Amino acid sequence: MLDRRRRALTAWLAAAILMTAGAPASAASLEYVGTYIWSSSQDSFGGFSGIEISADGSGFHALSDRSHLYWGSIDRDSQGILRGMNIAGYARLKDSKGLFLEPGYLGDSEGLAVADDGTIWVSFEGFDRIASYASPDSNAGLHPRPPKLPGMGVNSGIEALAIRDDGTIFGVPERSGLETRPFPVLTYRDGSWGRAGEIRRDPRWLPVGADFGPDGWFYLLERDFRGILGFASRVRRMQMTDDGPQDEEILLETQYLQYDNLEGISVWDDGVGIRLTMISDDNFLFVQRTEVVEYRLRD
C-alpha cells in the first residue's frame, strides 16, 4: 500500500512539474506613472469623454460630451511625466449642413478616434450615429447609422470608439440590454456596418472608451458608479480576430474614488513601451475635476 501511494505521489509531482513548465507567462499589468489635473477658464471646458494622444506623445485631441473638440501640445519632464496640457485651439462640432451641434440629443458626443490620415471620427449616443471630420472646423461627413441592437437607445449608444490600423472603425455600446448579455462589437468600413463578435460582460462594468494600441491589442476602458462611493475604473485588453475577441486580460481595476470619472483612453508608445493615457469627465460639476491619468504597460 505504501509503495502504491509513493508511486501515485511521484506521478502527481511529475505531472505538476510538466504543467508548470508549459504554463504561459503571467498576465500583463499596468504600472502607475502619474496624474495631471487639467483646468481652463473657458466655459466649454470640461465633460471630456474621449482623448487621443499623438504617436510621439507630444500632442492631443480631447472631446467633450457637448460637441467641443480641444487640441494642443503636451509638456513632459525628463522622466516623461505629464506636466502641462497646452490648448492650441478648440472648435464646436457641426452637423452635415454646417450648423453647430447643440448639447443634448444631437450633440451628445462620446467616442473619439483619429485615423492615420488625420480624419476625426466621433460617435454620438443621443441620436445614435457616427460622423467624420476632415478637420475640427469642417462639416460632419454623413454615414449610415449603426444597426439597432438590444440595449442601444437614448444615452446608451456607441460609447467606446477605436480605429484599427487597416482603417476599420470599432464601436462598443454602453449597454447590452441585460447584465448577463455580452456587449456586441460593431465594425464600420467602406460605408457598411458589420459585427466582430461579443465582449464578455461583468454586470457592474460598462464600456466608456477604447483604443487600439501600437501592439495591435484592443484596449477597453470600463466604469462602475456607486453613488456616494464614487467611480471605479477597469481596463481590459483583447485580440480582435475574425472569430471575435480572444485572449482577454484584465490589466487594471481601481478602487472607488481613486480617480474621477475616467471616460476616454488613448494607447501609444512612449519610446520605452506601451503607455495608456486616460481622461475624466467632470460632468461640469464643481465637485469633480478633469484628471489625465497615465499608466505604463508591464508584460
Structure description:
This is Esterase-like activity of phytase family protein. Residues 44-284 form the Phytase-like domain. It holds the Pfam family Phytase-like. Keywords: Signal. By secondary structure, this protein is mainly beta. The protein has one domain (37-298): Tachylectin-2, Chain A (5 Propeller). The chain has one helix at residues 2-21, and strands at 29-38, 48-53, 59-64, 68-76, 82-92, 109-114, 120-124, 129-133, 158-163, 169-173, 183-189, 192-199, 206-212, 218-225, 231-241, 244-253, 262-269, 274-280, 290-298. Strands 1-19-18-17 form a four-stranded antiparallel sheet, with no helix packed on it. A four-stranded antiparallel sheet has the order 2-3-4-5, with no helix packed on it. A four-stranded antiparallel sheet has the order 9-10-11-12, with no helix packed on it. A hairpin with a 3-residue loop joins strand 3 (59-64) and strand 4 (68-76). The longest helix is centred in the N-terminal third of the chain and has 20 residues, at 2-21. The protein starts with a helix and ends with a strand.
Q: Give the C-alpha Rg.
A: 21 Å
What is the helix content? under 10%
**Which architecture would the CATH scheme give at its second level?**
5 Propeller
Strand content: over 45%
The pLDDT mean sits at 90
Strand order of the largest sheet: 1-19-18-17
Write down the secondary-structure element order: HEEEEEEEEEEEEEEEEEEE
Span between termini: 47 Å
The helix tally amounts to 1
Shape: globular
Poorly predicted sequence stretches spanning 5 or more consecutive residues? 1-26
Reading off the top of the CATH hierarchy, the class is best stated as: Mainly Beta
Oligomerization state: single chain
Q: How many strands, which pairing sense, and closed or not: the largest β-sheet?
A: 4 strands, antiparallel
What structural class results from the helix and strand content?
Answer: mainly beta
CATH topology: Tachylectin-2, Chain A
Number of domains: 1
Output the CATH homologous superfamily: Glycosyl hydrolase domain, family 43
What is the total tally of β strands?
19
